[in-house]
Automatic annotation (TrEMBL):
It holds the Pfam family DUF188. NCBIfam families: PRK00124.1. This is UPF0178 protein SAMN05216262_12730. Belongs to the UPF0178 family.
Length: 147
């Protein structure tokens, strides 16, 4: 198993949890982003910078991820693609995307996009809370224990 991180929008605190887990479990962890990111020196942690552009980082993750790999992303369409490919997908708040829940998430995302496009203010996601961090760390540990 490898961990692929949609790193452009991944919160720093979540990256730090991932870095510690990669070292502790000796799991290769690859961050993909279209801007430079500093990662700790480690044989287990690497960074791939892709060109800027719409979904360039997402497409790179889809191309490289293999079944049973874990993808960390809050991007619902990316999660849907990798789940259908046989990967695991975990969002930074600790929610595991599965074949049984990803369609519902996509439908809700599309509905919210439609509301925003019609001028309705929907607000954004709240900041990552301590309980979100804990849920992420707990679910990450469970998934890595299965590898």
């Amino acid at each position: 198993m490898k961990i692929w991180v949609d790193a452009d929008a991944c919160p720093v605190v979540i990256k730090e949890i991932l870095f510690r887990a990669a070292e502790r479990t000796q799991t290769p962890t690859i961050l993909i982003a279209n801007h430079y990111l500093k990662v700790p020196p480690s044989k287990m942690i690497s960074f791939v910078q892709v060109s800027t552009g719409f979904d360039v980082a997402d497409n790179e993750i889809v191309k490289r991820a293999a079944p049973k790999d874990l993808v960390i992303t809050a991007d619902i369409p990316l999660a849907a693609e990798v789940v259908e490919k046989g990967c695991l997908a975990l969002n930074p708040r600790g929610e595991l995307y599965t074949l049984s829940n990803i369609r519902q998430r996509l439908n809700m995302r599309d509905f919210m996009d439609t509301l925003r496009a019609s001028g309705i203010e929907t607000g954004g996601a709240p900041p990552i809370s301590q309980s979100d961090r804990q849920a992420f760390a707990n679910n990450l540990d469970k998934l890595l224990a299965r590898k």
